[in-house]
Write a structure and sequence with these properties.
- With about 110 residues, the protein is mainly beta.
- It has one helix at about 1-10, and strands at about 15-20, 25-35, 45-50, 60-65, 65-70, 70-80, 85-95, 95-105.
- The model has no long low-confidence stretch (mean pLDDT about 90).
Length: about 110
């Protein structure tokens, strides 16, 4: 199932980009950009992320992104601990699905 989803995503030719910026204390602003194969913006997606702490149990949580136009989606997070986090983004669009996994380091 995972392999089939990866093949379908590759066939779409879409591009996703995650920018993780620091906020106050352990807060963060996360911006996800979704573009089609021609690098055009993909608006109208439902974007969510599972934010996971790979080194400690009990800190994982889900977050929904708000659309900002031009293929951009934004979420504000409050991270309970500094250090390494894994962000698993899922974008569900009427034309297909896109997944992105990135690790970020929060000071």
């Amino acid at each position: 199932e995972e392999i089939e989803a990866a093949r379908a995503q590759e066939a779409l030719g879409w591009h996703g980009d995650l920018v993780f910026g620091e906020g106050e204390a352990h807060g963060a602003r996360v911006e996800f950009t979704l573009r089609d194969a021609a690098r055009g913006p993909l608006d109208g997606a439902v974007v969510r992320a599972r934010v996971m702490r790979p080194t400690h149990q009990g800190y994982d949580f889900d977050v929904a992104f708000r659309p900002r136009g031009d293929g951009r989606y934004v979420a504000e997070l409050e991270l309970p601990l500094p250090g390494q986090w894994e962000v698993r983004v899922t974008a569900e669009h009427p034309r297909g699905s896109y997944r992105l996994v990135e690790r970020v380091l929060v000071p």
